[in-house]
UniProtKB/TrEMBL annotation:
<dbReference type="InterPro" id="IPR036271">
    <property type="entry name" value="Tet_transcr_reg_TetR-rel_C_sf"/>
</dbReference>
<dbReference type="InterPro" id="IPR001647">
    <property type="entry name" value="HTH_TetR"/>
</dbReference>
<feature type="DNA-binding region" description="H-T-H motif">
    <location>
        <begin position="31"/>
        <end position="50"/>
    </location>
</feature>
<dbReference type="Pfam" id="PF16925">
    <property type="entry name" value="TetR_C_13"/>
</dbReference>
<dbReference type="InterPro" id="IPR023772">
    <property type="entry name" value="DNA-bd_HTH_TetR-type_CS"/>
</dbReference>
<dbReference type="Pfam" id="PF00440">
    <property type="entry name" value="TetR_N"/>
</dbReference>
<keyword id="KW-0804">Transcription</keyword>
<keyword id="KW-0238">DNA-binding</keyword>
<keyword id="KW-0805">Transcription regulation</keyword>
<dbReference type="GO" id="GO:0003677">
    <property type="term" value="F:DNA binding"/>
</dbReference>
<dbReference type="InterPro" id="IPR009057">
    <property type="entry name" value="Homeodomain-like_sf"/>
</dbReference>
<feature type="domain" description="HTH tetR-type">
    <location>
        <begin position="8"/>
        <end position="68"/>
    </location>
</feature>
<protein>
    <submittedName>
        <fullName>TetR/AcrR family transcriptional regulator, copper-responsive repressor</fullName>
    </submittedName>
</protein>
<dbReference type="InterPro" id="IPR011075">
    <property type="entry name" value="TetR_C"/>
</dbReference>
Amino acid sequence: MSGGRKIAFDKQHALAAAMHVFWKKGFSGASLADLTTAMGINKPSLYAAFGNKESLFIQATDYYVEHIGGAHSQPLNQIGVPLRERLQTFLISVLAGQCDEQTPKGCYISLCAAETEADAIPEAARQKIQEVSQLTYNMLLTLFTQDPEAKQLKLDINAADNANFLVTVLHGSASMARTGHKYDALTPIVMHALKGLGI
């Protein structure tokens, strides 16, 4: 005898679909109709599997960090690779993702972070996006303060400024990608950013 009715859809696939809706429209712009249509489920199934819209957004944000955002940072930790090459690979990877034709343009985090001052975003959703928006900064800050080559290049002296500089560059490229700028037109930004760091 069955222990209960099984959910008749793939939760991970549905969560990925919800992520793409939030990525394209933001929290406020994504309606329940948009979400259920993209996920291929009805409202009762959404509530049963994911909770309310706020809870779904939090889960979709975590999905983005785990499956998309986190993959960009892997080159930064490659052993035996010069720091400049690691940073260039990281920045190019992020930029390519922002311009990818298979996903909404720009950056999920940048788009949603721009909404955090809006009253329409519930507090838990606001806290989640503020939390994840710090991940890239914290990762770069750790790199500049702890990486031996970064110290040799004295990037640790102004580590916070250097981290903020690259995060600002990435938010800017995300905005440009979202407004139609193509990958080939944006890649020179990476080289200018590295020159700005002095490497």
